[in-house]
Every structure is written in C-alpha cells, then in structure tokens.
Amino acid sequence: MFDVKVLGGGCSNCKTTVKLVEDVAKELGIEIQLEKVEDIVDIMTYDVMSTPGVVMNGEVVHRGSVPSRSQVEGWFGGKLEL
C-alpha cells in the first residue's frame, strides 16, 4: 500500500491532483491511503512552498503544479520522475 499525501489548500489544481492520483491508482489496481493536507503549517513541514505538493511514503515527489499522468504512474511503478 502506498501512503499518499496531497498538500494544498483546496485550490482547483490541488483537487485535480487528488483526483488524478485516485484515478491512476484505481486504474493500476493499486491500494493507496490518501490524505489531503490543507493546513499551511503542516504543508510547510514538508518544505513545500508552492502547491499542490505530493508526498509518497514520506518523500516529497512533486511540488508546484499538477503532475502529469505519466509522472503519477511512475511513482506507483517505483520510478520517480521529478
């Protein structure tokens, strides 16, 4: 199981990122535990100043924009594309 956190205050890009992560995981048949982190103090503990940010299993893998579908697929496949 992957522990995934999407960091952001609820903007449209953050919502798009949440949906993309959910959709890709479902399509690949991968079980995830998804958490939306909206508190700015919590977000800053990950050293993310530009949202949306994505944290996979404790590691920041993306920040500042909506990731591409291929990036998300790569995260779930073990290959990180930053």
What would the keywords be for this entry?
82 residues; alpha+beta; Glutaredoxin; four-stranded mixed β-sheet; 3 helices
The fold-level CATH name is Glutaredoxin
Count of all domains: 1
* Distance linking N and C termini: 21 Å
Largest sheet: spatial strand order: 2-1-3-4
Which value, in Å, is the CA radius of gyration? Answer: 11 Å
Query: In what range is the share of β-strand residues?
Result: 25-35%
Taken in chain order, the helices and strands follow as EHEHEEH
Largest sheet: 4 strands, mixed
List the helices and strands and how they pair.
Elements: E1 2-7, H1 12-28, E2 32-37, H2 40-44, E3 53-56, E4 59-63, H3 69-76
Parallel strand pairs: 1-2
Antiparallel strand pairs: 1-3, 3-4
Short description, anyone?
This protein is α+β, with helices and mostly antiparallel strands. It has 3 helices and 4 strands; from the N terminus they run βαβαββα. The chain has helices spanning 12-28, 40-44, 69-76, and strands at 2-7, 32-37, 53-56, 59-63.
Overview of this protein structure:
The chain has a single domain, classed as Glutaredoxin. The protein starts with a strand and ends in a 6-residue tail after the last helix. It is globular, with a radius of gyration of 11 Å. It is of the alpha+beta class and about 80 residues long. The protein is about 35% helix and about 25% strand. A four-stranded mixed sheet has the order 2-1-3-4. Helix 1 links the parallel strand 1 (about 1-5) and strand 2. It is built from three helices and four strands, in the order E-H-E-H-E-E-H.
